[in-house]
Structure formats: structure tokens, C-alpha cells
Amino acid sequence: MKKLFSLSLCAVTCVTLLAAFGSASTSWWDDSVEWDLARLAHRLAEENRRGEVLASRTGVVRRCTEGKREVTLEVIAGRLTLPEAAERFRELHETRDEGYEASPPPGPDHRDEEAMCLNVIVWVAAELHENPPRARVVVSRLEDELRDRLPSRSGDGL
Fold first, then answer.
1. Which domain does 40 fall in, by range?
2. Of 3, 77, 140, 156, which residue is 20 to 30 A from 134 by alpha carbon distance?
3. How much is the pTM?
4. What is the DSSP code string of 50-84?
């Protein structure tokens, strides 16, 4: 934040100096350029606010991602079932989405149990991508859990 504030202050100072220099000696400056410092300052303030919001969202998304990785490792170790992991993923998504002013962020619908279960399976497969034999065993176990939990999925190629 201090770096962003310092950069903003530097930008405002540069714009002010250029405007002052331009009004004192406009022979080198295009006369059609109008300096509206209030408008520029307002735009700079808006961009600073937007930067702060994005920095905050980045932290929230990072915590969600770290939480999902922890849950994924618990599933791989056999300490969490698929439904338990899906519930934790759902909670992480709800925390991530709190206060999100724009349209819902991309990703599975955290209200849909099946979508959350499939999201867990994808995370497990990704975590084990360097160990295909282990990935096949764990993913197969999770797919079996999903078929048992949602019988309508028994014949669709999971």
C-alpha cells in the first residue's frame, strides 16, 4: 500500500509540474492540450481505489486456493471423504464470494453438491498429475463415492 501511495503521489506531482511548466512556457506544448487537474486527480484516486479492491480480492482468492489445496491433500491422504471435502470447498467458495460486487466469479456453482464434488476430483487429479498410478487410484475412489452419493450418475462414464 505504501508503494502504491508513493507512486500515486509521484504521479500527481509530475502532472502538477508538467501543468505548471506548460502554462509558463507553452511554445513547445500543443496549445490544444487542456490540463484538467481536478479530472486527472479524480481519475487517479479512482484507479487507486480500484487497485486496493483488486489487492483485497487477490488476498481472498489466494486464501481460497490455499484452503482448497489443504483440503485436497487431506482427501489424498484419506482423511476426508468426497462429501466432506465438497462441503469445505463450498465454504471456501462462499467466503471467496462475500462482498463480490460484480457478477459471480468464474468457477463451479458452490450451491451444487455435484459441481463441488467434481471440483474436488479435478483438484485431486491436478495435485497428483506427476504420479499417474496414484492419481488413478484416488480419482477412481472419489468417482465411486460420487456415484454412490448421486445414483443418477452411475451410467454416465464417470
1. 2-18+33-153
2. 156
3. 0.62
4. HHHHHHHHHHHHHHHHHHHHHHHHHHHTTSS-HHH
